[in-house]
Write a structure and sequence with these properties.
Chain lengths: 108, 312, 108, 108, 312, 312
């Protein structure tokens, strides 16, 4: 019984997803750590948005997709930081949803 | 015409015709690594063969040219082209810096004609990459620097193109002609083939700039075609003045007349984020690069030959 | 205060995720624009479903994962279009969830 | 009308996302089938977490990102299996959210 | 046996034994680009050396064969094999079109035996890729065309294999033997090595088709083995009739007897979506390709030799 | 010093200086495939030239050494290094197994000095990969086996490195010197260049281990430097005892003194999940690999020469 209860992820966190230019990867990773994220996951992507088509074919012209599972508090800090530092000058979108996590203590 | 240039044309046509021909980014990376290492190694081996004397004054002259070029370009872009300050500074940084691919085509051009060139040219290639980028950033920031220079210079100096060029130079110099012999099949014998594949991809990339080109109008095209020749002439004069051979003079002209599309875009995107990155890249890749490999290099060779009293 | 409020993404949009065959990339991108999506993000994927294993090893045998952040209206149009054009003949799944976005005006 | 109703994905399933070490790909895929998942989607990723930076540069040092759309029941089994088999010894996070799917019958 | 074929066997065994050996898609792309360009360049250089006369009637004959083949194959697949109309049409399109890898192994086979072949064969390779696909689509649609032909033909003609083949042909022809010399180390000297790596991957891919093969039963295997020889014989007769050499006749037979696994699958997937894509691919890659490189090519060479009055 | 080693140094420096130089995983895979196939092919061709007699006793001796090594290493790591049982067993598995890249540098070292080596060495490379991993797992499990051995051994034996090595061996042996000739430009002529690029990446990877190294303290460094020489000496003695030439003795010493960083990490991660994977990898890649290519190989060559009565 106890096991079953354990297996149902019932603690809620935010999942913040950032899609932006490859060139920002290092900068953003550093910022995320300073803002208190316990971790992040990145994958390569391509796409289209208000700043036109972005494709990974040509070296630095691709996108990355960053996911951060974190507390409300940290999520707020992250979106705020992105908005003020990058949103005006770089191709970037951010969205956020609720997720249930298995081991809440792993996520700031 | 050198067949490697046809590969550029093939890529360009395929791209404009919306072919599904793509080169995977990993292959592009491999090809550019090979080109950079080859250029470095060749230079290093030459340096090992004919140890240089009195290089210091040449280095000073070349660096001075590197710092000067963006100051000449910025006013044209800002006042003639009516570009915003950031965009004009970005363009100045791109055109003041250099293009490795153009240099490689220049080398192939000279090798085809059995024209030798001074061994320090790959070193000059390295020296010319950085100054214009620094000046461009200063121009964009009007001297006010909220740029974290330490980090930025680190990024430029340890950027992969400089690491591979300088690394190749040092290894070639340490190993000398004999030590490098066993590396020749990969790095030297395949050089033209690798360059051909690389130019195929450059053609595809240039084609992808075409739409921006149509949008941004005439100025970019004119800038991209009219600016290289006077810049290259300046480079040729400097090369001739510091005592380079005809081949070396040609290559310094090629460097001056070429525009960066790797180091500059990456650095400027971070340091001058408000500059529109597609403007400079389109001019550099979509206009100047093709101009240089099709028309520029032979012209610069003629200029160099004339400076050295030949007929071209 | 105003900043904090701004930083909390509180406007809701749909996130539509399509997983399908690589070969459809161009067609679907064109369709998405016609259907009114303001943008999309694509990454490569592999997987297994009712049509068997699909792996990117072999040229056109891989999957792509397309994400579109959009309004209810556009989401409905997209799922309808996919269902009628591709669902019967191609390996494809679609799912949808709610996300909060930072700058609602960026998304149709 | 009927079409419109069809096009609104209104049946809910769980979306389970697992981010873990590349080396586990084969094992986990086999397990997912045994646990009753009708399918899964995998893409390559890199990231940082409690076990440090994981980057795909070096052969087996990257991460994979596995997504499974499934019923509550299967989701529970998956998270339970992951927790008991891998959570202690491997870099791994799991999170779960609700999604609406277009053709509920496709998902176990 | 040519060692490159062992590489196919190695890949096949590794795949069947569920080895974790994989070739990254980027490497596969690089290898296939090199093969296509090499075949094109070789053909172009030969064309430049021995300018062709009276090619037009040959082209007409080859194209006619390309249009004819799927009409012969469709009934077999539809009525004998009892496949659905779309599946039968897809199979006809795949087998009517051609396989570049099989052609490359055929070239290697001839080179090993010092048998020369006519310079227009790479051109025929290009010509034969398209007609069968068009016919296959028409057969699937019963002539009713809700297919957007413009888009489809554009996709086929500017597909990467045709672009690289034709591009290579043109560059080789423009540059001639001397111009291409500096490209030889990459494109010509490495040809067999590149082909070996490519066949290793083909073996891995063929192995991945094995499960489908077991499921789809006997017909696909029989079709994949029994159909190539008569098709190739037809090709050989055409080749002999239009005056090709023994080598050229062999290669035209190879083309006729081979089945497409790049251009056809992509086009048919879009234009005939209701056809099961794994059926045709499994037959083409899992049965006919191995059959051709192990048994078919030597047989076709014998047939060609016999037609030319030799003993094989 | 062999210039390929400078490429390792270049990668190491670039990595430590946090350059953005990266080698795409696909390129790494291509390079390692080429190295493995080349080593296999070379060995196979040699075997075909000088058919071996009485190989059985040599194989027994080499396998015995492979099983023995981890038993010698485990106590050092467990009791001297005070590592947990699982970590000590993992380290024993890594160091008992072998490194293909180190072997390749050893081959290059001998070729440079015109020292030939026995044709069965690539075979020994294959033989030595597996036993230590099996013993390491048994040590970690204290003999209690909840390991699914069937699956695990399958994974090891059909792991890509063994498949490519054995495949290369067989193809080289079947094809013989003549058959392989057309493959030489890719697999043999480019060998040193490919090795250079591979070592560049190894340097980058080694640099990424540096931080772990600082954290894990002194023991790993000492273990990684002090353990190879006695192990290699054991290998040299075995090689001398079973009648290998100086070159062969050197390479068997290199194998014994090197540590695995491909097969062992993958297998141990699955079979001994509680072992910290970074410990063994850091020692193997960050300490022992550089030690071996810079200092170890010349030492082992000296030892082998002394055993054979030469002066070194
Ligand atoms: N509506 C959207 N849905 C999904 N992805 C988007 C959307 N809009 C933009 N993106 C992604 O975000 C990147 C940057 O967007 P933008 O700043 O609008 O150019 C694009 O290249 C896309 O990958
Ligand atoms: N239940 C599922 N969960 C996650 N991904 C799935 C699922 N079913 C299918 N997929 C993905 O969607 C692709 C097409 O699915 P299908 O049409 O069922 O073959 C598969 O190759 C998987 O990548
Ligand atoms: N808070 C987080 N948000 C997003 N991804 C994470 C987070 N924590 C860990 N990860 C990912 O999960 C992997 C394993 O996490 P860990 O077991 O904590 O090392 C990491 O390499 C990241 O890719
Ligand atoms: Na310049
Ligand atoms: Na055919
Ligand atoms: Na060892």
């Amino acid at each position: 019984m106890a096991v079953e209860v354990n297996d149902v992820p019932d603690d809620t966190r935010k999942l913040v997803t950032i899609i932006t230019e490859t060139v920002l990867e290092l900068d953003i990773c550093e910022a995320l750590e300073e803002l208190g994220a316990a971790g992040y996951t990145i994958s390569n992507a391509r796409g289209k948005g208000s700043r036109g088509v972005r494709d990974a074919g040509w070296a630095s012209s691709g996108n990355i997709r960053i996911e951060i599972v974190c507390s409300d508090e940290v999520a707020k800090r992250i979106t705020g930081h992105m908005r003020s530092h990058y949103y005006d000058d770089y191709a970037m979108i951010i969205f956020e949803s609720d997720v249930r996590v298995l081991r809440p203590d792993k996520f700031a | 015409m050198d067949p490697v240039i046809w590969f550029f044309a093939l890529g360009l046509i395929a791209g404009l015709a919306k072919s599904d021909l793509r080169m995977p980014p990993a292959v592009y990376d491999l090809l550019s690594m090979l080109l950079l290492l080859t250029i470095g190694l060749k230079g290093g081996v030459e340096l090992a063969k004919a140890p240089f004397g009195g290089l210091a004054p040449q280095i000073v002259a070349v660096l001075a040219m590197g710092f000067l070029l963006p100051f000449l370009l910025f006013p044209i872009a800002h006042w003639v082209g009516r570009l915003a300050r950031a965009d004009a500074a970005s363009l100045a940084a791109h055109y003041g810096s250099v293009s490795v691919a153009t240099f490689a085509v220049g080398v192939a051009f000279l090798v085809d004609r059995n024209v030798s060139y001074d061994s320090q040219l790959p070193l000059f290639l390295v020296l010319l990459e950085v100054p214009a980028i620094v000046v461009g950033i200063l121009l964009a920031r009007r001297g006010r620097s909220n740029v974290s220079w330490g980090k930025l210079l680190h990024e430029i100096f340890f950027g992969k193109s400089i690491v591979l060029l300088v690394g190749g130079l040092l290894i070639g110099w340490l190993a000398g002609p004999d030590g490098v012999r066993s590396l020749e099949p990969l790095f030297f014998d395949l050089f033209k083939g690798v360059l051909a594949l690389f130019l195929l991809e450059m053609g595809l990339i240039a084609a992808s700039q075409a739409r921006t080109l149509r949008q941004s109008g005439l100025f970019l095209v004119l800038f991209g075609i009219l600016v290289p020749v006077p810049m290259a002439t300046l480079g040729a004069v400097v090369g001739w003045a510091i005592g380079l051979s005809v081949g070396g003079t040609t290559l310094l002209a090629v460097l001056a007349g070429s525009a960066s599309y790797i180091a500059a875009p990456a650095a400027i995107r971070i340091a001058v984020p408000e500059a529109n990155p597609t403007l400079s890249l389109t001019a550099s890749l979509g206009v100047t690069f093709p101009f240089n490999i099709f028309a520029g290099i032979p012209i610069y060779f003629t200029i160099a030959s004339m400076l050295h009293g030949g007929g071209g």
